[in-house]
């Protein structure tokens, strides 16, 4: 999904092309999922119409336009597939180029289109049209009073690594009481706003920290490296305007998608060559030119593996990202008692709600859990006790099963003989205070006779063999 760098690119686009423009008209579509906060699309359109765009701001993955006059401000979140598009230009696509022709207007899946007219002091002198579109309806649009940062959900966000990264001392204090995995911590929007799946993986790869490492097992050097790269990675991505082809060659991002198997598809037409490029762009062209693999410090190829950490598909290089001494990773056992490992090729995008985010990579999903030596010893003792109890119960179960089988065979033999009578069934002891069930005599006789015939037939078959 679009993360901090991609959202910053959208914010920058609005700020640099729409600042000073008046919202002449708003064309909106009904969507009770995308429009949230108690306002429908008509209220949204009415409240922002006629006002002038004075800028665009962002915190984490949330961004909003600042407007002149009284009234609330339009606050936007892309979700997984949300985009901003100017008429006549490509939308702010994330890693994969959309199939839709930017010349088609209004664009498919739009939620609102703003018709903007230039004013004195605006950044341009030509009319502009701006659209927010979202095909999967996981984005969110709402109205919030100014200042937006003082109202939820924006007020609940943590620090922004690009805008207000904490000092090292402040960072140490923030993580002092944190639990769980280090990846889960930095992806928590209440901790660090804007860090999503690929940014988290890149930060941890550059810091040489295993994503499943418990926060309380981070060394002093780990914390220093994490603090540094948590700002350095998104800042570098923002500097190149979130253009993944300009990311550093040693970034994991350049190698994690598709394993180089994805190639551009479709034939290019002379008059519209750019628009015929594959929507799956992001395979070969992401890789640095002239490079065949992500290299280890010894120049050998690195092995990228995919596991599930904190509910998210995670890419890492185990040769460089090792767990601390005394902490191991074991597969998470499902309720059925079997380890859950699955190989899959997801079709969706990325998200912060637990869904898979690597849309073109063939990933191996292995839920993992870090454990200490004390926890492993305790678990081992528990298993041994359960095995002992199972062994004690087995002879009793076997004896009961044997007695039941003998009774059934005796009944069958007696019924198979002419004028034979089945011996009286072995009385079953009941616990004190329980009552026996009374059944219809007619129905009981039918069941006994059917059982006798079946038993007689079985014995005849056995004797013929």
What tags apply to this protein structure?
alpha+beta; N-terminal domain of MutM-like DNA repair proteins; Helicase, Ruva Protein, domain 3; 2 domains; 4-stranded antiparallel beta sheet; disordered C terminus
Describe this structure as you would to a colleague:
This protein is of the alpha+beta class and 465 residues long. The chain contains eight helices and 14 strands. The protein has two domains: 4-152, MutM-like, N-terminal (N-terminal domain of MutM-like DNA repair proteins); 168-261 and 280-375, Helicase, Ruva Protein, domain 3 (Orthogonal Bundle), CATH 1.10.8.50. It has helices at 4-18, 41-48, 168-175, 182-187, 197-207, 220-239, 373-416, 441-464; strands at 22-28, 53-59, 62-67, 73-77, 82-86, 110-117, 128-134, 140-144, 304-309, 312-317, 328-331, 342-344, 363-365, 368-371. It has a four-stranded antiparallel β-sheet with strand order 1-6-7-5, with helices on one face. Strand 9 and strand 10 (312-317) form a beta hairpin. Helix 1 packs parallel to helix 6. The chain starts with a helix and ends with a helix.
> What shape does the CA trace take?
extended
Strand order of the largest sheet: 1-6-7-5
* Uncertain regions spanning at least 5 consecutive residues: 259-284, 333-368, 436-452, 454-465
Count of discrete alpha- or pi-helical segments spanning 4 or more residues: 8
CATH classification, class level of the largest domain: Mainly Alpha
What's the SSE pattern?
HEHEEEEEEEHHHHEEEEEEHH
Bin the helical content: 25-40%
Write down the overall mean pLDDT.
78
* Rg of Cα set: 33 Å
CATH architecture of the largest domain: Orthogonal Bundle
Query: Which class of secondary structure composition applies to the elements?
Result: alpha+beta
Q: What is the CATH topology descriptor of the largest domain?
A: Helicase, Ruva Protein, domain 3
Say how many strands there are: 14
Tell me the number of structural domains.
Answer: 2
| Most strands sheet | 4 strands, antiparallel
Strand content: 15-25%
Report, as a whole number of angstroms, the end-to-end distance. 68 Å
């Amino acid at each position: 999904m679009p993360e901090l760098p991609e959202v910053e690119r959208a914010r920058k686009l609005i700020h640099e092309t729409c600042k000073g423009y008046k919202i002449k008209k708003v064309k909106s579509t009904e969507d009770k999922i995308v429009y949230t906060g108690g306002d429908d699309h008509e209220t949204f359109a009415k409240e922002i119409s006629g006002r002038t765009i004075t800028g665009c701001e962002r915190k984490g993955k949330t961004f909003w336009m600042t407007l002149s006059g009284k009234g609330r401000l339009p606050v936007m979140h892309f979700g997984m597939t949300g985009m901003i598009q100017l008429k006549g230009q490509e939308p702010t696509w994330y890693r994969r180029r959309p199939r839709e022709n930017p010349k088609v207007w209004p664009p498919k899946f739009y939620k609102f289109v703003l018709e903007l007219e230039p004013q004195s002091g605006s950044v341009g002198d030509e009319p502009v049209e701006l659209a927010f579109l979202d095909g999967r309806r996981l984005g969110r649009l709402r109205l919030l009073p100014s200042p937006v940062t003082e109202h939820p959900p924006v007020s609940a966000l943590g620090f922004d690594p690009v805008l207000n990264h904490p000092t090292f001392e402040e960072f140490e204090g923030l993580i002092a009481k944190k639990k769980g995995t280090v990846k889960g911590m930095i992806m928590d929007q209440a901790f660090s706003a804007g860090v999503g799946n690929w940014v988290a993986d890149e930060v941890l790869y550059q810091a040489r920290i295993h994503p499943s490492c418990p926060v309380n097992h981070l060394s002093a050097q780990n914390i220093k490296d994490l603090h540094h790269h948590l700002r350095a990675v998104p800042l570098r991505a923002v500097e190149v305007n979130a253009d993944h082809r300009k990311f550093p060659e040693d970034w994991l991002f350049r190698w994690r998608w598709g394993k180089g198997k994805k190639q551009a598809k479709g034939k290019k037409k002379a008059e519209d060559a750019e628009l015929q490029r594959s929507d799956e762009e992001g395979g070969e062209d992401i890789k640095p030119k002239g490079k065949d693999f992500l290299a280890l410090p010894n120049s050998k190829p690195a092995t990228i593996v995919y596991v599930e950490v904190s509910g998210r598909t995670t890419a890492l290089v185990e040769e460089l990202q090792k767990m601390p001494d005394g902490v191991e990773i074991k597969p998470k056992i499902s309720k059925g008692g079997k380890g859950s490992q699955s190989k899959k090729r997801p079709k969706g995008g990325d998200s912060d709600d637990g869904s898979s985010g690597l849309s073109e990579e063939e990933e191996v999903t292995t839920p993992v859990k870090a454990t200490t030596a004390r926890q492993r010893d305790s678990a081992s003792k528990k298993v041994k006790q359960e095995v002992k109890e199972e062994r004690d119960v087995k002879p009793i179960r076997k004896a009961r099963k044997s007695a039941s089988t003998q009774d059934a065979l005796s009944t069958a033999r007696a019924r198979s003989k002419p004028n034979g009578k089945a011996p009286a069934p072995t009385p079953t002891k009941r616990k004190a205070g329980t009552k026996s069930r009374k059944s219809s005599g007619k129905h009981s006789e039918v069941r006994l006779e059917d059982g006798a015939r079946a038993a007689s037939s079985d014995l005849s078959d056995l004797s013929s063999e």
